[in-house]
Amino acid sequence: MSSQDLAGPDPAETTDAESGTNTSSAPDTPCPVIDSLEQIGSRWRLVVLHELLNGESRFNELKRETDANARTLSRVLDDLQETGFVHRRLEEESPVATYYSLTDKGESLAPVFEEIDDWAHEWLAECNG
Known about the structure:
By secondary structure, the protein is α+β, with helices and mostly antiparallel strands. It has 8 helices and 5 strands; from the N terminus they run H-E-E-H-H-E-H-H-E-E-H-H-H. The chain has helices spanning 3-7, 31-40, 43-52, 59-66, 70-82, 104-107, 110-123, 125-128, and strands at residues 15-16, 21-22, 57-58, 86-91, 97-102. A hairpin with a 5-residue loop joins strand 4 and strand 5 (97-102). The longest helix has 14 residues, at 110-123.
């Protein structure tokens, strides 16, 4: 028998028998985190989003700046456009060009990238030193 068995149930996680609700303040699953990572969590999506924080870019500029191959970049941009992070603008005048920029949803990730950058400077410096 474990000490948990002897102590009984945690009062913060007890169920109110009358209402059938869980009184715990913690969520059962980290749903928002998982959902967020499913939308932005691939390496290439993060790289493209970070690059677009610098402003609107043409496909070939993104390809050069991210070192992604054309097929990967095209797929990632399509995914980011479908999920509402990226806006695609086609300039049909000669020469024809496609421009990509962040939507408001994409722009809202700027503080997240700033926090990751701050964290990396604090914690990854030890690994590089």
